[in-house]
Design a protein that fits this description.
Blueprint: H1 6-32, H2 36-60, H3 78-81, E1 86-89, E2 92-95, H4 105-131, H5 138-161
Helix pairs in contact: 1-2, 1-4, 2-5, 4-5
Length: 171
């Protein structure tokens, strides 16, 4: 059992709040995305964020959660992720043949929103990690931060494959 300082509790409560916002946002994006592959992407991100929320809840109870370090990210097939021609994620395959760049502007907007959400979470977890550097929670923060890196890659790769960086976005 870990005794948390008031500052540590405050930081974990902040992470918990941000995680719940991300889950709600990704669930909403799953419903509103036009592209079926994008729906799958957001559904997977929501599951990942739920697992992070569970870790934070355990930490708030003073428990040191068990993490599976064998795979950095449950929805990747890392052997194809860096390929220029293919992206395989959670049973979804995007290929270079998908370069027709057809996407709904709404999908582009929610992708950018998701990307900034993950970047914010990545940043806040890095700040929290620095406060827990010499604690039992350091490895948990490192695990979550690594998954945030993968989530950012996941969204970026989808956006690249769909050509969402090729023109200006108008709000």
């Amino acid at each position: 059992m870990v005794n948390l300082s008031s500052k540590e509790k405050f930081l974990l409560e902040g992470e918990k709040y941000q995680q719940q916002l991300a889950i709600d946002k990704f669930n909403d994006f799953t419903l509103h995305a036009k592209d079926d592959n994008l729906k799958t992407l957001f559904s997977n991100l929501s599951k990942i964020e739920e697992s992070h929320l569970n870790l934070i809840n355990e930490m708030l109870q003073g428990k040191v959660p068990l993490i599976n370090n064998k795979s950095i990210h449950p929805y990747y097939e890392s052997n194809t992720f860096n390929s220029n021609n293919y992206l395989s994620v959670g049973g979804m395959m995007l290929t270079s043949l998908d370069n027709n760049y057809s996407y709904e502007d709404g999908d582009k907007i929610i992708c950018f929103d998701a990307l900034t959400t993950e970047e914010l979470l990545h940043y806040t977890y890095n700040i929290s990690k620095s406060e827990f550097e010499k604690s039992e929670f350091n490895d948990i923060f490192e695990f979550i931060i690594n998954e945030k890196n993968e989530n950012i890659k996941y969204i970026n790769e989808y956006m690249n494959k769909k050509g969402m960086y090729n023109n200006t976005i108008y709000f």
